[in-house]
Fold this protein.
Amino acid sequence: MITIEKRKKYSIKENLLIIIISIFLSLFISSLIFSLKGINPFFALYKIIFSSFGSLYGIKETVTKAIPLMLCGIGLSIAFKGKFWNIGAEGQLLTGAVLATWVGLFIGKNLPSIILIPLMFLIGFIGGGLIGLIPAFLKVRFNINEVIITLMLNYIIEQYVQYLVYGPWKGKTQYGFPYTDNLSQNALLPIIKGSRIHYPTLIIAILLSILIFFLIFRTKLGYEIRVIGENPLSAKYAGIDFMKVTLIMMFLSGGIAALAGVGEISGIHKHLTYPSQISSGYGYTAIIVAWLAQLNPLIVILTSLFFGGILVGGDVIQTSFGFPFATINIFNGLMLVFISISYFLIQYKITFKRIEK
Amino acid sequence: MNETTFLIFSIIKRALISGTPLLLGTLGEIYTERSGVLNLGIEGMMAIGAVSGFGLTLITKNPWFGLVFAIIFGILLSLIHAFVSITLRGNQTISGLSISMLGLGISGFWGKAYIGTPLKYKFQDFTIPILNKIPFLGELIFIGDPIFYISLILTFILWFILYKTKWGIIIRSCGENPLASDSMGINVYIVRYICVVIGGALAGMAGAYLSLAYASSWIEGMTGGRGWIVIALTIFSLWNPVRALLGAYLFGGIYILQYILQQYYKISPNILLMLPYIGTILVLLLSANETLRKRIGAPKFLGEPYIKEEK
Amino acid sequence: MKNQGIETLEMKGIYKEFPGIVANNFIDFNIKKGEIISLLGENGAGKTTLMNILYGLYRMDKGEIYINNEKVNIKSPKDAINYGIGMVHQHFMLIDNHSVLENISLYLKETPIFFPEKVVEDKILKFFDKYGFNVNYKAKIYELSLGEQQRVEIIKILLGGASLIILDEPTSVLTPKEAKDLFGLLRNLIKEGKSIIFITHKLKEVFEISSKVVVLRKGKKVYEEDIKNTNENVLARYMVEREIKPLIEKKEIKNGEIILSVKDLFVKNDKGRNVVKGVNFLVKKYEIFGIAGVSGNGQKELIEAITGLRKWEKGEIVIFGKNYHKFNSKLFRKLNISHIPEERTKFGVVSNLPIYDNSVLRTYDNHPFYKGLLLRYNTIKDFSKKIVNDYNVMTPSINTKVKLLSGGNIQKFILGREISTKKDLIIAAHPTYGLDISATRYIRDLLIKMRDEGSAILLVSEDLDEILEVSDRFAIMYDGEFISITKPGELSIEEIGLLLGGMKNKEEKIS
């Protein structure tokens, strides 16, 4: 007979071990799936790890990709902490990208950098925050499932971005490509030489992860978020205002994810383009970034670097083996499955007993 | 047929066709949710159904084999969700999302080779004799691909099982009150497993319909969010298979509206492509109102793992 | 084994232990065909546990069960049903959103797969003919009154072929008329040769319906007698009898100002039924006012109204001299009320958060715990250390998650948290429920200490010992009303027992 009991004690060591094992299992099973196409799984594994962490160039790329993941992951940690399933980081990121382009290209193009760039981040933040309010309001007021609403908003915003780059914002200087015109120099973020790392965004991300850590664990709002997330009944007993807390929480969550979009436009692409080019699914990958970090914004720094590496490695095996873009989702999906399994193993103790007759 | 009737005819015809995968997916999710499990993995199960159906049809040269494999793959994916959410009492939202990612990932990976490959082996259109001679209606409803008919028959069968048989009562009880069901000697776990598998099978079938009948080709990301719309339609249907019919064809109509509007008005295709998603949000708003008013809500224990306490 | 009717049923030496408490302490219980046995006792006496064992919901630690002189092994409700045992739980095992027909179809083994409701409908109609009563069998359960729902449970069990029927506090949800009908039905069933076990705490009912009575107290069988040979006073004494402990040395009550007064209050429960029916009382500074009574008589809803968690229908609540006619949760939150809630782990704490976070659950936005937007964790941690030290909360540290504490320590913690910041009015619901002796002792002493220091305390408890020991005045609540307000020592234990069982006309209403 198998019995399942709640564990009385948690050991951090065991915890960490289980998570590391699940990372390796996900990597290994993904590679096994790749081997269906005749690729040596160990070679694929080696390629992923080597290309992302094995060279200076790889590390630079990893950091570049970690920036949007970090911002989205921090944003999602806030919402997930309150058990609000914001799957909309992708759309919120794109909102930031659209607004950054709008500010940089149209309304503020003659402003000096020192004003223009903060303005782009600010407007992007507000826009993403407002998008975040929609599912928050619908959830608290009408009890509508936030997963569907945030996902639908992702699709709508993706279409909107396409509409812009094919239509009204299509650049005159882009030879018919669906891009907006490039941002002028004063709207661009500085980068670390010899890389694509737009370090101001990275600094913002790291500062935010510290700030949000303090918000969640040291402020009244963070306290309210945690209580609502852990036990809505005692939140009621404590007299917490669900509407107020959820709205603020989602405004922050959406706003921070949108900062990632500003960074991608102003630091990397220099113009608005296809949604799938601006974000290679950062908003979705960030779900796992946040979850693997156990919703701790400080750990998000580490997990986003790890997943930045996975994205870089994924890109490399995609190009060298001719895999499609979606391949990375195999790993991401497996990773989530294994995290769920490891949470179970961490929480419960399973013992096997012989039945005595 | 003059031009207007032809237009109306083709709108309805195409709405029925594009509503069919939504209907199949919704039927499955209704069963899953009725038993108390929320499966957000429809998008992934549809995607894997689409690619496996297409691939196996190319190999076996018979779309029916393709369909069977699509169902099998849908089931395999759904079993992961069942295991994590029922046996391991995991978070159903997270588990469902992982299924969606996994399905989209595998389908993209697997289907790369099929991009641009035309499908030579198609379902033969099925004609219902005599009735097909009725003007207008005959061609509209009584000639069509077999999966369209299968989906209609399934709607009826699944409705019948849910409301007219003891099995239906058992399934609904597990979602409404697993404790009371358990105390009446029902194995809640097994019932939930079966229902999740039914959901997986139907989502796989829905995917196969997309690649084998609707588009007759494979394109990466061809599910295009239909899996999520299915979740919304499940709510809109008030967890009733017959009402799912209404919702699915309504959304089928929205998909077709895109083409019509594009032909006759100069609206950006991207704006039109938003319609189903905007429609989904509206539908959820409407349903929220209706479920409140009619007191027909989601199954009470939807999304909550059942933990049998040892006493 | 098939169900051939139960001629005799014997439970021998039933022993069942829950963590920290012996619920059934070697109980013998027998019933024969045609008997109605009342199982009488206060809450926590072990009645329901004993019956849940018989019905296969709990597994006994020791003991044996014989049906028709054959030893049986009842592992699950399914087995019990097969042996012909049916049970109507206090909280009905019905599926609210399903119709009566669907519920019964689910229960009956022999219903066909297809169109089960048709077959069940025929059976129900025959049943109605036979017993001459009716229920709208097409309605959904939630549309029915609790009395009707109970009838559904009984129909379900009888159609399922039960020959021994267990009813757990069946009249607690019934109107007097419904109760009368129920008794009529039970008498008919007895004539047919069924046997019935009737769990109750109401003395009147024992004499109205049963042929024999068994009294349990603190997990033991203390009395068993044919109904002809006993009387109410004897039963009341056996039910509540206890060594009258010398009352704790309590200081003389000081006359304080009125802190809480409740006037003609009516409150509805979740199902929309009035369960608090015109309650009047006041609580003064330097006073512990107790509310005794078996739970389910409206105490929960009364407390929720006073603490701002539930709307009330009619009446007014005056707290600290302020008059409230209408429910306003925000206003109430700001009031200086300590609230020790009934289901402590469900409401009172966030089990996944550490002790220090939990120490300010209801005061995090009060001084001195915050400054601007920030929480002052140093102050909070000091405060939680103080709670842990002052109130003897056994925990490795204040960083420990609350879910790792024992029930007694969680309760000490909640109590400490509540009364260390808000002392003026303390509302404690079942504060020692399920705790061991030392924790119980500790908490009662603490309440008395708070009273001596000037708190006004409202104490709701099912535990009569606690009420008698701790309170200065107390009310006995029965069916939504205070049927008596008295002082410990004024009434004999027998009289109290009679009142708890609802055996008195309402006379003295307000003190």
